[in-house]
Write a structure and sequence with these properties.
Subcellular location: Nucleus
Number of strands: 16
CATH class of the largest domain: Alpha Beta
GO biological process, one term: negative regulation of gene expression
Helix content: 25-40%
Strand content: 15-25%
Shape: globular
Number of domains: 2
InterPro entries: REX1-like_exo (IPR034922), REXO1/3/4-like (IPR047021), Ribonucl_H (IPR013520), RNaseH-like_sf (IPR012337), RNaseH_sf (IPR036397)
Structural class: alpha/beta
Radius of gyration: 22 Å
Order of helices and strands: HHHHEEEEEEEEEEEEEHHHEHEEHHHH
Keywords: Exonuclease, Hydrolase, Nuclease, Nucleus
CATH topology of the largest domain: Nucleotidyltransferase, domain 5
Largest sheet: 6 strands, mixed
CATH superfamily of the largest domain: Ribonuclease H-like superfamily/Ribonuclease H
GO molecular function: exonuclease activity; nucleic acid binding
Number of helices: 12
Distance between the termini: 46 Å
Length: 322
């Protein structure tokens, strides 16, 4: 029985839409918990093994060094450059261009030197190459201890949005959610170099966002580590690129770009989400949203757990025997 003093009138202020949304959220939460409980033995079968981590281009530790093997989609790309290398390859027009000794690109506002596939022309090139010295800056999640042991085996999804600066691609936004989709980290990251292209169509970022950027790549990485340990499972789409950008070494990984059947091609997160979850993402005029993408990759994992016949063959076989 509800006490007479209970503020029942507070419920009157809730719109029907909010009530329905609240019920849906609770139903989703209960469904996720049930799936993970019933499929707990299957989750580990979706985690990439050691050879797959290497073959699919994730950062791996070799002795006291970090190595990244170009995956099948990166075979012709230069991923890193040596200290005295002053040439880069544009990811937009694929031409080789010169940079200054410090790695920065000199911009000439009067000369259009680059063109995209739609015929748009620019006075600058863009590239994703990083200096070799960055391979020495990777870090691992904390080891399991009495303070973080409850994070072992738990799923956490990560997504990174990037911008292009005078020295190449840099992290602009990072979002991390827990297994229920609750946001643990959502930060705008201040690039170390001047931004020349916010790539708003894809990143969702603008110069206004950067006015409030207080995090650095290093500080946001520590925030990620606050919520995981070395046994936590990281989820994402094309997660190898995100970990490379964040300079994170991790071995327990589920990548939705590998998880599903794709006829030999890397499926987009947008297509997978529409096909399997009947949900449209990445269609906002403001660009992509890292929170939306992280949650979508997480929900695709749950979909795969209850629909193993739709997984790619390497995961389908291992799941079907459990």
């Amino acid at each position: 029985m509800i006490s007479p003093s209970y503020p029942v009138c507070a419920y009157a202020a809730l719109s029907q839409e909010r009530i329905i949304a609240g019920i849906a959220a609770e139903n989703t939460r209960q469904t996720i918990i049930r799936i993970l409980r019933e499929k707990s033995s299957v989750v580990q079968q979706l985690v990439l093994n050691k050879n797959q981590v290497f073959d699919y281009g994730f950062p791996v530790e070799m002795g006291d060094q970090v190595y990244i093997q170009p995956n099948e989609f990166q075979r012709n790309q230069e991923m890193y450059y040596a200290e005295n290398d002053t040439f880069r390859v544009c990811t937009r027009c694929h031409s080789t261009f010169h940079v200054e000794k410090d790695g920065s690109q000199t911009l000439d506002s009067n000369e259009l030197i680059c063109q995209d596939v739609d015929g748009n022309r620019y006075n600058y090139h863009i590239h994703t190459q990083q200096p070799m010295e960055n391979l020495k800056k990777f870090k691992k999640a904390p080891k399991v201890n009495e303070w973080n042991m409850e994070m072992s085996g738990k799923l956490f999804a990560i997504d990174v949005e990037s911008v292009y600066t005078t020295k190449g691609q840099e992290v602009g936004r990072v979002t991390k959610v827990d297994f229920l989709g609750t946001v643990l980290v959502d930060a705008i990251v201040k690039p170390k170099n001047p931004v020349i292209d916010y790539v708003t169509k894809y990143s969702g970022l603008t110069s206004d966002h950067m006015k409030y950027a207080t995090e650095t790549l290093e500080s946001v990485r520590e925030k990620i580590f606050d919520h995981i340990n070395e046994d936590s499972i990281l989820v994402g789409h094309a997660l190898n690129g995100d970990l490379k950008s964040l300079r994170i070494l991790h071995s327990n990984l589920i990548d939705t770009s590998i998880l599903f059947e794709s006829n030999g091609r890397r499926p987009s997160l947008q297509k997978l989400t529409l096909t399997h979850l009947n949900r449209e993402i990445q269609n906002s005029a403001g660009g992509h949203c890292s929170k939306e993408d992280a949650i979508a990759s997480l929900h695709l994992v749950y979909f795969g757990l209850i629909n193993p016949s739709l997984l790619s063959p390497i995961f389908r076989v291992s799941c079907s025997i459990l």
